[in-house]
Amino acid sequence: MGLYTVKRLRYLGITLSILTVGLLIFTIDPLRKEYVLQYPHAHVDNIRVEHNNTEGRKEVSKKQQTYYKKNRLRHITTVYKQILQNISIKAEHKLGHLLNTSTGSLNRKNVLFIMSDDLRPQLGSYWGRNYPNPFTNLKPHTPHLDRLASSSLLLTRAYVQYSLCGPSRASLLTGRRPDTVTTWNLETKFREVQRNFTTLPEYFKDNGYISINLGKIFHQGHGWKNDFQSWNIPEPQEVNNFQGLYRSRLLLSNEVSGFVTPDQREGNMLTPDESLTQYSVNYLRRLAPYAKSGNANFFLGVGYHRPHLPWICSKEFYDLFPVENVDLPREENKYYPKHYPLNEHQPHLELLRHVLNKTTHEPNEILSDYETKYYRRAYFACVSFVDDMVGILLDEVEKLGLSESTVIIFLGDHGWHLGENSLWGKRSTFEQSNHTPLMIKIPGVTDNGIVSDALVEFIDIFPTLVEAAGLPLVPVCPRQSRELSLCTEGTSFLPLIDKPSSLLKTAALSQLYYDGKMGYSVKTERYRYTEWIPLNKTEVNKEIYDYHLMWNTVTCVELYDHVADPEENVNLAYEDTHRDVVFDHNSMLKELIGVKISHVNLKLF
Asked: Among the entry's GO cellular component annotations, what is one (predicted)?
């Protein structure tokens, strides 16, 4: 059978699986256009709801609306549950074979790797000057993650390398910077441009661990397609496909946020993240006897989808945050920073453009105060929901007697704006998009809890976890490392356990491609400094382009003083009083990236 035929059969199989799931949803969802959850455009009594669809506005009675909510969620989650049950039978067979043939070691730690999507440090353990809104009085409700933080190394200033799911995850899971991985968007699959890179779970797999993926860990292409090479037991593509359809159906129906009430849970209905937690618990129970006896080691990756849009979770979590208690961004923080070059304004595509059908993303386009409060509340509720799911996993680890042999790491993949700087989404070079939670619990090492304000990057996670688990250390990458399958551009942050106030690195580097320019942003002890560099794009063939950064031309520069201005409301880059700070940070940025240019025309003074 020829290669072309094999490819055709493979694509046919994938297409059929997608169509099957789509047909199931289409068949059981005849009311798909009318169904909505509560959202702020609805009248206060929820009797009338406006819809953005081709038929224009419709009016739905309260009785009909309740019926649609109840049945849509029941049907859609029933299909999801059936898919997971069918897949779990196949996974159980493979897991049984792996457990019976694995050779583990009690000298190595197991790893529970927990990720949350679009999570800024909206946790109680971050309360204070490193909290996303240092001026708020509304405290978060995250008791379980706070419990984990109390026995972990908590990194209060950890920064992603790219504020978008795909590039951020590709970077942290390979331990390489986005420019090395050459993944700057959701469409690019890093294996297609850098096939030889060894990923974090793959390294554990190669060292004899049973590597299992549940939920969203990688994000390659639309629909967060997995990297099957990294896992012994990957989450099947059918689940990825269904999750994408589940989310898109809700978003296309303008169901941005809302809650699931008890009467909607007929037949013990579970939302996707609840199902994910249930299956994670089942895997832990299956792995525990082998792990405790030293016959097997595991790397279990659990990736939660909340608080990514749509902000839907159980009503009990919404009740924690009455809308009247939710505060707004401060007046000076609602808009783009003062002296910000508006011709370089950054996109806020997610909520305003993709969900609320606002076709433009003009700078300083803001929502009403009520809408702002409503959506902020929805986000806070989903953070508390994820906290509750993580609490179930932590309790199960304790119950199974795995606490003393399992490293637990919790992280987000990037932050999120909730109206700050007039943005609703990720994908910016501001602090809110690049600052995210990171904590690691190492049994017998971090039991009393350690808090460090040292600057840490997400490329540091790979070498840190490897060292914490007791595996052979990963070599440091040379300046040019695209031809090397295994190395890291990060640095283990385990030294912070003994010396939490030590200086691990002087700056954390993030970047973002937008509108033909690459924005490089460095976070230092006091400042955030950003340069926007034009990219020259040259077509090699129909699918491959060469990109060349035009370092001799910087289109605009930003500088924010996080001591005097933690919300980044005033751009100081064009002030004579900060000339030296700008040039010092310019030199630091070039050194981090490896650019050897003696002079750059900053066009500032």
From this structure: cytoplasm
